[in-house]
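Exercise: predict the structure of this protein bound to adenosine-5'-diphosphate.
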Amino acid sequence: MSKRCAIYPGTFDPFTLGHLDIVERACRIFDEVIITIATNARKKPLFSVEERIDLIHDAVRRFPSVRAESFGGLLVDFARQKSAVAIIRGLRAISDFEFEFQMALMNRRLQKDITTVFLMPNEKYTYLNSTIVKEVAEFGGDISNFVTPEVARRLRDKFK
Ligand code: ADP
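Solution:
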Protein backbone atom coordinates (compact mmCIF):
# COMPACT_ATOMS: atom_id res chain seq x y z
CA MET A 1 0.00 0.00 0.00
CA SER A 2 1.29 3.48 -0.76
CA LYS A 3 2.27 5.78 2.07
CA ARG A 4 -0.40 8.10 3.37
CA CYS A 5 0.95 11.62 3.50
CA ALA A 6 -0.65 14.65 5.16
CA ILE A 7 0.34 18.27 5.01
CA TYR A 8 0.04 20.59 8.01
CA PRO A 9 0.01 24.19 6.77
CA GLY A 10 0.45 27.38 8.75
CA THR A 11 2.67 30.32 9.46
CA PHE A 12 4.53 28.80 12.43
CA ASP A 13 6.05 32.15 13.43
CA PRO A 14 7.29 30.53 15.62
CA PHE A 15 6.44 26.84 16.09
CA THR A 16 4.83 26.25 19.53
CA LEU A 17 4.11 23.24 21.72
CA GLY A 18 0.50 23.52 20.50
CA HIS A 19 1.71 22.92 16.95
CA LEU A 20 3.89 20.06 18.19
CA ASP A 21 0.90 18.49 19.93
CA ILE A 22 -1.02 18.49 16.63
CA VAL A 23 1.99 17.02 14.77
CA GLU A 24 2.23 14.16 17.30
CA ARG A 25 -1.43 13.33 16.82
CA ALA A 26 -1.12 13.50 13.03
CA CYS A 27 1.84 11.09 13.17
CA ARG A 28 -0.37 8.44 14.72
CA ILE A 29 -2.71 8.58 11.73
CA PHE A 30 -0.46 9.29 8.74
CA ASP A 31 2.76 7.67 7.50
CA GLU A 32 4.28 11.00 6.57
CA VAL A 33 3.55 14.58 7.72
CA ILE A 34 4.85 17.64 5.87
CA ILE A 35 4.66 20.84 7.88
CA THR A 36 4.08 23.46 5.23
CA ILE A 37 5.12 27.04 5.86
CA ALA A 38 2.98 29.41 3.85
CA THR A 39 5.19 32.14 2.41
CA ASN A 40 2.41 34.28 0.95
CA ALA A 41 1.07 35.45 4.30
CA ARG A 42 0.19 39.12 4.45
CA LYS A 43 1.67 39.53 7.92
CA LYS A 44 5.34 40.34 8.25
CA PRO A 45 6.86 37.38 10.08
CA LEU A 46 9.40 37.71 12.90
CA PHE A 47 11.35 34.63 11.76
CA SER A 48 12.50 34.04 8.19
CA VAL A 49 11.29 30.92 6.40
CA GLU A 50 14.73 29.33 6.85
CA GLU A 51 14.72 30.07 10.59
CA ARG A 52 11.23 28.63 10.93
CA ILE A 53 12.20 25.46 9.05
CA ASP A 54 15.28 25.02 11.29
CA LEU A 55 13.24 25.50 14.45
CA ILE A 56 10.62 23.01 13.28
CA HIS A 57 13.24 20.42 12.34
CA ASP A 58 14.78 20.83 15.79
CA ALA A 59 11.36 20.40 17.46
CA VAL A 60 10.36 17.28 15.48
CA ARG A 61 13.72 15.46 15.63
CA ARG A 62 12.15 12.46 17.35
CA PHE A 63 9.59 12.02 14.56
CA PRO A 64 11.39 10.63 11.49
CA SER A 65 8.23 10.79 9.38
CA VAL A 66 7.88 14.58 9.78
CA ARG A 67 9.61 17.33 7.80
CA ALA A 68 9.07 21.01 7.06
CA GLU A 69 8.95 22.74 3.68
CA SER A 70 7.85 26.14 2.46
CA PHE A 71 5.29 26.81 -0.21
CA GLY A 72 4.10 29.98 -1.87
CA GLY A 73 1.18 29.03 -4.09
CA LEU A 74 -2.17 27.40 -3.67
CA LEU A 75 -2.14 24.85 -0.88
CA VAL A 76 -4.09 22.24 -2.81
CA ASP A 77 -1.49 22.38 -5.60
CA PHE A 78 1.26 21.70 -3.09
CA ALA A 79 -0.79 18.85 -1.61
CA ARG A 80 -1.25 17.34 -5.05
CA GLN A 81 2.48 17.64 -5.85
CA LYS A 82 3.22 15.69 -2.68
CA SER A 83 0.43 13.17 -3.32
CA ALA A 84 -0.99 14.11 0.09
CA VAL A 85 -4.38 12.70 1.02
CA ALA A 86 -5.12 15.15 3.84
CA ILE A 87 -4.68 18.67 5.15
CA ILE A 88 -4.28 18.82 8.93
CA ARG A 89 -5.57 21.79 10.92
CA GLY A 90 -5.71 22.35 14.64
CA LEU A 91 -8.97 23.43 16.27
CA ARG A 92 -8.55 25.21 19.56
CA ALA A 93 -11.90 26.82 20.18
CA ILE A 94 -15.19 27.68 18.55
CA SER A 95 -13.57 30.93 17.42
CA ASP A 96 -11.34 28.95 15.04
CA PHE A 97 -14.31 27.22 13.52
CA GLU A 98 -15.81 29.67 11.04
CA PHE A 99 -12.59 30.48 9.22
CA GLU A 100 -11.47 26.86 9.23
CA PHE A 101 -14.83 25.70 7.92
CA GLN A 102 -14.69 28.19 5.02
CA MET A 103 -11.16 27.21 4.13
CA ALA A 104 -11.84 23.48 4.31
CA LEU A 105 -14.85 23.81 2.02
CA MET A 106 -12.96 25.99 -0.42
CA ASN A 107 -10.07 23.54 -0.55
CA ARG A 108 -12.53 20.73 -1.14
CA ARG A 109 -14.03 22.65 -4.05
CA LEU A 110 -10.57 23.18 -5.50
CA GLN A 111 -9.45 19.59 -5.00
CA LYS A 112 -12.10 17.09 -4.04
CA ASP A 113 -9.73 14.23 -3.23
CA ILE A 114 -7.98 16.02 -0.38
CA THR A 115 -9.70 15.79 3.00
CA THR A 116 -9.20 18.37 5.74
CA VAL A 117 -8.73 16.68 9.11
CA PHE A 118 -9.21 18.71 12.31
CA LEU A 119 -7.35 17.68 15.41
CA MET A 120 -7.82 19.05 18.92
CA PRO A 121 -4.76 19.70 21.04
CA ASN A 122 -4.37 18.93 24.71
CA GLU A 123 -6.57 21.44 26.63
CA LYS A 124 -3.50 23.13 28.06
CA TYR A 125 -2.70 24.48 24.59
CA THR A 126 -6.14 25.75 23.67
CA TYR A 127 -5.30 29.37 24.48
CA LEU A 128 -1.87 29.27 22.88
CA ASN A 129 -0.89 30.94 19.64
CA SER A 130 2.32 32.28 18.11
CA THR A 131 1.25 35.93 18.48
CA ILE A 132 0.74 35.64 22.24
CA VAL A 133 4.07 33.86 22.63
CA LYS A 134 5.84 36.68 20.76
CA GLU A 135 4.15 39.31 22.92
CA VAL A 136 5.12 37.58 26.16
CA ALA A 137 8.69 37.10 24.91
CA GLU A 138 8.97 40.72 23.82
CA PHE A 139 8.29 41.88 27.37
CA GLY A 140 10.61 39.35 28.95
CA GLY A 141 7.96 36.91 30.23
CA ASP A 142 8.59 33.20 30.76
CA ILE A 143 7.62 31.24 27.64
CA SER A 144 9.24 27.94 28.58
CA ASN A 145 5.86 26.18 28.94
CA PHE A 146 4.77 27.19 25.45
CA VAL A 147 7.69 26.54 23.11
CA THR A 148 10.75 24.28 22.78
CA PRO A 149 13.98 25.41 24.51
CA GLU A 150 15.49 26.30 21.11
CA VAL A 151 12.51 28.46 20.10
CA ALA A 152 12.67 30.17 23.52
CA ARG A 153 16.37 30.89 23.00
CA ARG A 154 15.86 32.30 19.49
CA LEU A 155 12.97 34.46 20.71
CA ARG A 156 15.13 35.88 23.50
CA ASP A 157 17.80 36.70 20.89
CA LYS A 158 15.26 38.51 18.70
CA PHE A 159 14.14 40.74 21.55
CA LYS A 160 17.54 41.43 23.08
P1 ADP B 1 -2.23 30.54 11.00
O1 ADP B 1 -2.74 29.51 10.05
O2 ADP B 1 -3.27 31.43 11.59
O3 ADP B 1 -0.99 31.25 10.58
P2 ADP B 1 -0.60 28.99 12.75
O4 ADP B 1 0.47 28.95 11.80
O5 ADP B 1 -0.28 29.50 14.11
O6 ADP B 1 -1.85 29.73 12.28
O7 ADP B 1 -1.22 27.57 12.93
C1 ADP B 1 -1.33 26.62 11.94
C2 ADP B 1 -2.31 25.59 12.37
O8 ADP B 1 -2.03 25.15 13.68
C3 ADP B 1 -3.76 26.07 12.41
O9 ADP B 1 -4.57 24.98 12.04
C4 ADP B 1 -3.98 26.41 13.84
O10 ADP B 1 -5.33 26.26 14.22
C5 ADP B 1 -3.15 25.35 14.51
N1 ADP B 1 -2.70 25.78 15.83
C6 ADP B 1 -2.03 26.90 16.17
N2 ADP B 1 -1.80 26.95 17.49
C7 ADP B 1 -2.35 25.84 18.01
C8 ADP B 1 -2.51 25.33 19.32
N3 ADP B 1 -2.06 25.99 20.39
N4 ADP B 1 -3.14 24.16 19.47
C9 ADP B 1 -3.63 23.53 18.40
N5 ADP B 1 -3.56 23.95 17.14
C10 ADP B 1 -2.94 25.09 16.94
